[in-house]
């Protein structure tokens, strides 16, 4: 029985992780949950999974949660209520909860950074969904992983595919994920991308893109922020940096391939030029389950892949003019140091502004580019955690300021 903590339990990754725990009660026991503001769903989750601890990002909601749980206890006295904690310290405590073996990081954005570091410092293994943490704070997270010996398992479908392809290669025997060491035998990674919400739109039509258009993903059902990131292809750019950190491969050997069917989740090319791919329906439960069961596999009744039903898989070159965010991410990744943190924070803020209808879809890359350009003069090549948090704050502020002054330029 593996004891798991789920950070961001009310989100897309969190709810799918809990579905898996429910489906495999003899394999997984949920000991800790953290959530933002969705109390009705959280209460349902507590009833079903009876965790030992629950942490709320917003401390002021604890009395309301307490009341709701008291009502549940009155109806079902056999339920043991969890310890309730809140605020940043509460999230860190839940993330490093003593009885947990593995922590699923389903918080969205850099808000996941400190809880993830707490989990690593406590020596917990991680199922990493919250890519923003690794991208912004790679220079701090990687040494911390080396020190603690925590195993980092990728829950992002592309990185799970790569991880699965590398099982049984010399890489799996000689390298651990995220030690930053060069990967023996791995020549190239091909990250597949569905193409996002606007893949059928001509570039000149993007001027008309609305929030509703950008938050409808053709293949995957995910949280709003990552769905917009998929529409700009920044998600793929972030995943390039994520792959660089996870597999110790340089940026020249990570390619993006548009693959609209999302059946091949990514590919690796080995030194003898053999290419390995992992295939499956676009269903996030698969990579999450693999993190939970690794190095074993569990039997599932889930829909099996039928290539005859699909008929055709297609691939094409991504359009860098239509999607400038990819190049911005490659460039920030190559610059390294604090630049990926600026890229990530500027993107988070620009996407938030877009979702509030304050800027246009096409302004997102402009705002990110501008923040990265301005940061060049202050680049820090080996930042501490405090310095990363500080540039993250600076970049968010810089984007907000530019939006407020209506000073977005091409
Ligand atoms: P989501 O918006 O559906 O859920 C986010 C969760 O984080 C919620 O539980 C929310 O309450 C919590 N949260 C939000 N802000 C918080 C804060 N400031 N402090 C603490 N908790 C907070 O997001 P999601 O789609 O589940 O994505 C979660 C992470 O997983 C992201 O980093 C995303 O890039 C990554 N990811 C998601 C998918 C997917 O299919 N959804 C796939 C790959 C990677
Ligand atoms: Mg992905």
Describe the secondary-structure layout:
Layout: E1 2-7, H1 12-23, E2 28-35, H2 39-49, E3 53-56, H3 62-75, E4 83-86, H4 87-95, E5 102-105, H5 113-121, E6 125-128, H6 131-148, E7 152-154, H7 157-166, H8 170-174, E8 186-193, H9 211-214, H10 224-232, H11 234-247, E9 254-258, E10 264-270, E11 275-279, H12 285-293, H13 307-310, H14 325-335, H15 339-355, H16 363-375, H17 385-404
Parallel strand pairs: 1-2, 1-5, 2-3, 3-4, 5-6, 6-7, 8-9
Antiparallel strand pairs: 8-10, 10-11
Helix pairs in contact: 2-3, 4-5, 5-6, 6-11, 6-15, 10-15, 11-14, 14-15, 15-16, 15-17, 16-17
This protein binds nicotinamide-adenine-dinucleotide (NAD) and magnesium ion.
Describe the structure concisely for a colleague.
With 410 residues, the protein is α/β, with parallel strands linked by helices. Helices cover 46% and strands 14% of the residues. The protein folds into 2 domains: 129 residues, Rossmann fold (3-Layer(aba) Sandwich), CATH 3.40.50; 238 residues, RNA polymerase sigma factor, region 2, helix turn helix motif (Rna Polymerase Sigma Factor, Chain: A), CATH 1.10.1740.
């Amino acid at each position: 029985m593996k004891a798991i903590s789920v950070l961001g339990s009310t989100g897309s990754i969190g709810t799918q992780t809990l579905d898996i725990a429910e489906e495999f009660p003899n394999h997984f026991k949920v000991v800790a949950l953290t959530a933002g503001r969705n109390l009705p769903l959280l209460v349902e989750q507590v009833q079903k999974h009876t965790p030992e601890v629950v942490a709320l990002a917003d401390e002021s909601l604890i009395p309301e949660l307490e009341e709701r749980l008291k009502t549940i206890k009155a109806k079902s006295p056999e339920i043991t209520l969890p310890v309730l904690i809140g605020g940043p310290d509460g999230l860190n405590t839940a993330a490093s909860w003593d009885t947990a073996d593995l922590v699923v990081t389903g918080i969205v954005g850099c808000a996941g950074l400190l809880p993830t570091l707490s989990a690593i410092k406590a020596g917990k293994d991680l199922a990493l969904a919250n890519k923003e943490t690794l991208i912004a704070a790679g220079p701090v997270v990687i040494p911390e992983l080396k020190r603690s010996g925590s195993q980092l398992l990728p829950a992002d479908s592309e990185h799970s595919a790569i991880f699965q392809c590398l099982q049984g290669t010399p890489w799996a025997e000689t390298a651990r994920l995220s030690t930053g060491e060069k990967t023996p035998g791995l020549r190239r990674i091909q990250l597949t991308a569905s193409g996002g919400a606007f893949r059928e739109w001509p570039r000149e039509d993007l001027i008309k893109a609305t929030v509703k258009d950008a938050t409808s993903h053709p293949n995957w059902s995910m949280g709003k922020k990552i769905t917009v990131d998929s529409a700009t292809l920044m998600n793929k750019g972030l995943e390039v940096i994520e792959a660089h950190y996870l597999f110790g491969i340089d940026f020249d050997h990570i390619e993006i391939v548009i693959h609209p069917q999302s059946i091949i989740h990514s590919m690796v090319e080995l030194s003898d030029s053999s290419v390995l791919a992992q295939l499956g329906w676009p269903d996030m439960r698969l990579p999450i389950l693999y993190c939970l069961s690794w190095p074993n596999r569990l039997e599932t009744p889930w829909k099996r892949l039928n290539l005859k039903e699909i008929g055709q898989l297609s691939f094409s070159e991504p359009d860098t003019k239509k999607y400038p965010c990819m190049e911005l991410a490659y460039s920030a990744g190559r610059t390294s140091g604090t630049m990926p943190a600026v890229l990530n924070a500027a993107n988070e803020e620009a996407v938030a502004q877009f979702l509030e209808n304050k800027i246009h879809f096409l302004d997102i890359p402009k705002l990110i580019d501008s923040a990265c350009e301005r940061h060049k003069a202050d680049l820090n090549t080996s930042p501490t955690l405090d310095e990363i948090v500080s540039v993250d704050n600076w970049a968010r502020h810089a984007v907000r300021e530019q939006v407020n002054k209506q000073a977005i330029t091409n």
